[in-house]
Design brief:
With 272 residues, the protein is α+β, with helices and mostly antiparallel strands. The chain is built from five helices and 16 strands. The strands form four sheets. Strands 1, 2, 3, 4, 5, 6, 14 and 16 form an eight-stranded mixed sheet that branches. The protein has a three-stranded antiparallel sheet with strand order 13-7-15. The chain has a three-stranded antiparallel sheet with strand order 9-8-12. The protein binds 2-oxoglutaric acid. The site of 2-oxoglutaric acid (AKG) has 10 residues, from strand 6, strand 15 and strand 16.
Length: 272
């Protein structure tokens, strides 16, 4: 794991492997050095939390742009006055499309690197988000499973987007295992069975069994960080090594999250 040189910014690990809390920084005024430290820390620990930021939407967008061009999920409707922000606002009584583990917008050729959620209104209790470390999901596989997956690709399709007709229809295949461009580590790059529909060179039955097995494997309890939200939190995760799911159990309470995504690269299994 690469080391980082810290300035005033502080960090502490949130579990044995996954999640880091970063404090003593104002994200709206972060230095270039701090941005690079954050990029490394999120790559190492999959998700970073920044309590008490209360970022205005324009500051959230400006912070996200420090990591690269922004990405909009094809087929999503703009629903705020800020065109780069997708707002999730819901009560927690009904099933919601973010309520299952997934990696964001994997059904395009160059899926997002980072996603950032700003808690505009957090519930008093409930409405947590779970993050699952996909380096560990890969590391836990036996050499035989790794050999099976290492050179294979998985076909990704959209599900749960507002306007599926707006998603490009070209088939999208990504390696089942991808190398993280910052950390050089290998991570499992699969998602929910609705979006992973085929494994290269395998029958439908074989693909379905393996995809289900990998989905279970991806969320063992030793690789999870569970974030309990406070209003004003900014949480940033790296989709190249993480899956996440929201727990919509907050009943009648309001929960409003502003989301911004940063463009990523085509996943590869390349050498470090
Ligand atoms: O609302 C949340 O906690 C998670 C949102 C989510 O799943 C997403 O942005 O893809």
């Amino acid at each position: 794991m690469a080391s980082v040189i810290l300035t005033a910014m502080q960090h502490r690990l949130l579990t044995g492997s996954t999640g880091v809390e970063i404090t003593d920084i104002q994200l709206a005024d972060a230095s270039d050095n701090e941005i690079e430290q954050i990029r490394q820390l999120v790559g190492d620990y999959c998700v970073a939390t920044f309590p008490g930021q209360n970022l205005h939407p324009t500051d959230q967008v400006a912070f996200a742009r420090r990591f690269g061009p922004l990405l909009w999920t094809p087929g999503e409707e703009e629903n705020t006055e800020f065109p780069d922000i997708l707002q999730f606002a819901n009560e927690g009584r009904e099933a919601h499309r973010t309520g299952v583990f997934h990696t964001d917008t994997c059904f395009i050729a160059e899926p997002p690197s980072f996603t950032m959620l700003s808690a505009v209104v957090a519930p008093e209790h409930g409405g947590d988000t779970l993050f699952s470390n996909q380096y560990l999901a890969y590391d836990a596989l036996s050499p035989a499973w790794r050999a099976l997956l290492d050179q294979r690709r998985v076909r990704h399709v959209p599900s749960g987007v507002a306007n599926p007709d707006e998603v490009p229809s070209d088939p999208v295949w990504h390696p089942a295992v991808r190398r993280h461009p910052v950390t050089g580590r290998l991570a499992l790059y699969t998602t929910l069975p609705d979006r992973n529909v085929e494994i290269e060179d395998m029958t439908d039955e074989e693909s379905s069994l393996i995809i289900s097995f990998l989905y279970e494997q991806a969320h063992a309890i030793d690789r999870i960080y569970r974030h309990r939200w406070s209003t004003g939190d900014l949480v940033m995760w790296d989709n190249r090594c993480t899956q996440h799911a929201a727990v919509h159990d907050h009943g009648d309470q309001t929960r409003i999250m502003n989301r911004v995504m940063v463009a990523g690269e085509a996943p590869t299994r390349g050498e470090p």
